[in-house]
Amino acid sequence: MSVLALLSRDDGLFHKAIVQSGNAHIGQTPEDAALVIGAVAERLGVEPTAAALAGVDIDDLTEAQNEVSKEVSQSADAVAYGASTIASCGLAFLPVVDGDVLPRLPAAAIADGAGGQVPLLMGTTTEEFRLFIVTSALVSVLLPGPFKTRVKAYGAPAGAYDEYAKNDTAAYPRNKPSGIAAAVLTDRMFRIPTCRVAEARGENDGAPTYLYEFGWRSPVVPNNVQVKLGACHSLDLPFAWDTLSLPANQKFTGTEPPQSLADALHSTWVDFARTGQASWKEYDAQERPVMTFRYNNTASDQVVNDPRRTERELWDGLLDTV
Question: What is the C-alpha separation between 145 and 150, in angstroms, rounded?
């Protein structure tokens, strides 16, 4: 399970926690999880039971899981796979709110104070969802219709696609439907849920919560239409762990990622792990300070109060923690 899901159990597992691209709002119902497992079992020709699946060759099981994952992502079919599955914005396999291992949706438990004694550092990247769009066939779709349908299915506010389209910038282009949809779904899946957890924790007057955003854009082009990865999901991890020199990471970052950025982010993680504090103010619902590493894809690391406020406000009343 994710750090936030574990934190929501309030088992005392952590004395400090760092959450990168987390989401406390996702969790399948047992009924919807059964639909997904049933689809896997059907492809394998076995009963949807633990015993039957345990007897399947691991390669066959993995292939069936991948097929179902792809179908869930491509179809967004709530009838076939359940509303709680589709609410995860493309995930097929996720924590199940079973009343035992995961008693409640993590966001609700955290809002009621679970894990409130644990200092929390939470980060997102500026263009998280690009990883899932620009690496797929969706990047070549030039009509807005399919993307508008998908962001609606995933629970974006009415008119979100058109509002986000207005904010095309040189730093973070939204001049194609894929880029616009990626911006909406970045907020839907990552940024707004992160804000909601920080807001809820702030109301409980517990341990501090610090937010940061990673704005450096990867120049790597993972498709044949010359669309870059940008500041996508997981891009910050080689910087956070200071492993830019690994060849596997350079396939993600390119051959000349800025070591100074790794120094800054890595030291932030290490200092927080040591002290439970960051060098900027903890998040609150008034100023909303967010340390932004490589603000607007420049060399500047700076605290930004309430970044992209008008887009954040589109989500008021949505993805609440209660």
Answer: 9
